[in-house]
């Protein structure tokens, strides 16, 4: 056997000189004892095809500087049994091919990022389930693929400074760690991180085990590119439909009470666990009203956001490069997806928008909701100092609904200085939730007062209290700053109510401005939809 292995090693070295690596054309490669194979060169790939198989020994290993490619047909998982290990010791290597591979021990060394290019690669073995994924100091990019950890032990994944990248901007994140916990309990760390080198682990402490020896928990995480905007309205039962409404005027979708990171957690069976969510301080995009403050976890049940009230009480870390914060949510039995929110009540009781505009020496308050849960009424409250608030009146809510509703309230500007307003929502059980605070200067002005309204349709309403008879120019820009529509509007002194039809424009976000010669009197962001 030693002689055969020696000849085999010479063959590998000769092939590497021609930048071919090792191509297994259907052979059965059998290792004995502590046999080792080293495939040199950046193009020293191991390519398995035509049903080729490796039969490793317990202490054998394959080290390569190129890529691991399993193109075997008929489909196999490259290894005939558990044992030995593969060491990726090159730079920026990939694990791919047309079929997944069932590794026993997989070690990442060398330099650069290792990346999956095929789904469902397993580490830990096919039957023994005791192999280990050793990240070392290297990042492993899932690259929209899933990796399966079949070893249920706490130490099935080891690391020094390495991490697993799960960042994929999609309604349902495909970059998943599937860990077969089977019927074990205990604390397991999913070692997530981001490409900048920051470690943001997710810890699942299973207190009541999964019921079957084949059970697992899928976990993925990703930051959103811009304040929780993506994934709303995706036509998939696992996606979130009500983080914001794309048809609400003036709303950019920002949720000012939510940390800018999401987690998808999907168990294959019933399980009870404590979960610790980690995030970067730079992902704390909370409005100053909420940050720094106490945050807790909330999950999406398919139709609305549900709170885990026991977890409100962890202080949010402030924004900062490399600063990591975490929140532990105990006793979870419901999963996927989760966010961290500064609101005690479930999302999206947080208003999509809440605006104040001067009109005829009064303040016109407008707000919209994406969904409501047992909402009995809103109370509009006013303050002259932003601390002591007093009720001005109530507006009836819409009960329980998953569609957008918009409301308005006309208030007297009680101060010539800054006026502060907030909303409190009272549900059928008497529970009260407060909104963020908004402010507006006193409305005594010699200038024209203009209010631009849009409910998401192609019709834009313009209310103008003009100080004189005049002609104004209405200009519409697209998101690139290009003028896409213009209208000349003739107004008379006093009150004017005007509707502008923009049905010639496609459904999108636009910016509408009212101009008097070159002076911009008022601008608003609008969202047009011909379906409204």
Molecular structure report:
By secondary structure, this protein is mainly beta. It is 3% helix and 46% strand. It has one helix and 45 strands. It has an eight-stranded parallel beta sheet with strand order 1-4-7-9-12-15-18-21. The longest helix is centred in the first third of the chain and has 16 residues, at 2-17. It is elongated, with a radius of gyration of 30 Å. The protein starts with a helix and ends with a strand. The model is unreliable at 1-19, 229-238 and 244-254 (pLDDT under 50).
Low-confidence region ranges = 1-19, 229-238, 244-254
Helix-and-strand structural type = mainly beta
Please give the alpha-carbon distance between the first and last residues.
Answer: 76 Å
Radius of gyration, whole Å:
30 Å
**Rough shape?**
elongated
Keywords:
single chain, about 525 residues, mainly beta, eight-stranded parallel β-sheet, six-stranded parallel β-sheet, 1 helix, 45 strands, disordered N terminus
Task: Give a short overview.
It is built from 1 helix and 45 strands. It is mostly beta strands and 532 residues long.
């Amino acid at each position: 056997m030693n002689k055969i292995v020696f000849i085999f090693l010479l063959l590998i070295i000769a092939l590497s000189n021609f930048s071919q690596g090792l191509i297994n054309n259907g052979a059965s490669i059998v290792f004995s004892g502590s046999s080792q194979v080293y495939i040199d060169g950046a193009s020293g790939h191991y390519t398995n095809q035509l049903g080729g198989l490796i039969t490793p020994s317990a202490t054998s290993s394959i080290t390569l500087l190129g890529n691991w490619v399993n193109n075997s047909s008929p489909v196999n998982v490259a290894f005939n049994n558990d044992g030995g290990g593969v060491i990726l010791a090159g730079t920026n290597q990939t694990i791919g091919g047309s079929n997944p591979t069932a590794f026993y021990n997989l070690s990442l060394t060398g330099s650069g990022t290792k990346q999956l290019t095929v789904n469902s690669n397993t580490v830990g073995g096919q039957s023994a389930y005791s192999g280990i994924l050793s990240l070392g100091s290297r990042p492993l990019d899932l690259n929209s693929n899933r990796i399966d950890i079949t070893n249920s032990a706490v130490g099935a994944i080891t690391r020094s400074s390495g991490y697993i990248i799960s960042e994929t901007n999609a309604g349902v994140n495909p970059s998943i760690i599937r860990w077969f916990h089977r019927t074990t309990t205990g604390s397991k760390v999913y070692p997530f991180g981001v490409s900048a080198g920051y470690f943001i682990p997710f810890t699942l402490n299973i207190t009541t085990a999964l019921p079957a020896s084949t059970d697992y928990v899928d976990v993925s995480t990703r930051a959103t590119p811009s304040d929780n905007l993506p994934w709303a309205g995706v036509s998939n039962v696992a996606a979130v439909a009500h983080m914001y409404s794309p048809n609400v005027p003036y709303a950019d979708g920002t949720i000012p009470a939510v940390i800018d990171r999401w987690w998808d957690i999907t168990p294959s069976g019933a399980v009870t666990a404590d979960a610790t969510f980690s995030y970067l301080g730079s992902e704390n995009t909370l409005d100053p009203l909420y940050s720094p403050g106490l945050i807790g976890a909330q999950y999406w049940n398919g139709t609305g956001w549900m709170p885990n009230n026991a977890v409100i009480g962890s202080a949010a870390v402030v924004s900062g490069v490399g600063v990591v914060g975490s929140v532990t949510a105990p006793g979870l039995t419901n999963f996927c997806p989760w966010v961290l929110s500064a609101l005690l009540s479930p999302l999206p009781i947080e208003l999509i928008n809440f605006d104040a505009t001067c009109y005829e020496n009064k303040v016109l308050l407008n707000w919209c909701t994406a969904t409501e849960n047992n909402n009995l009424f809103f109370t509009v409250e006013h303050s002259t100092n932003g601390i002591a608030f007093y009720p001005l009146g109530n507006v009836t809510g819409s009960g329980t609904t998953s569609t957008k509703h918009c409301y308005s309230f006309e208030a007297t500007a009680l101060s010539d200085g800054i006026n502060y307003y907030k909303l409190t929502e009272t549900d059928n059980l008497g529970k009260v939730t407060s909104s963020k605070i908004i402010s507006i200067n006193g409305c005594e002005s010699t200038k024209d007062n203009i209010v631009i309204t849009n409910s998401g349709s192609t019709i834009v309403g313009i209310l103008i209290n003009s100080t004189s008879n005049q002609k104004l120019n209405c200009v519409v820009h697209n998101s690139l700053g290009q003028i896409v529509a213009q209208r000349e509007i003739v107004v008379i002194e006093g009150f004017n109510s005007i509707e502008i039809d923009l049905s010639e424009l496609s459904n999108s976000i636009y910016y509408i401005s009212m101009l008097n010669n070159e002076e911009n009197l008022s601008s608003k962001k609008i969202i047009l939809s011909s379906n409204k």
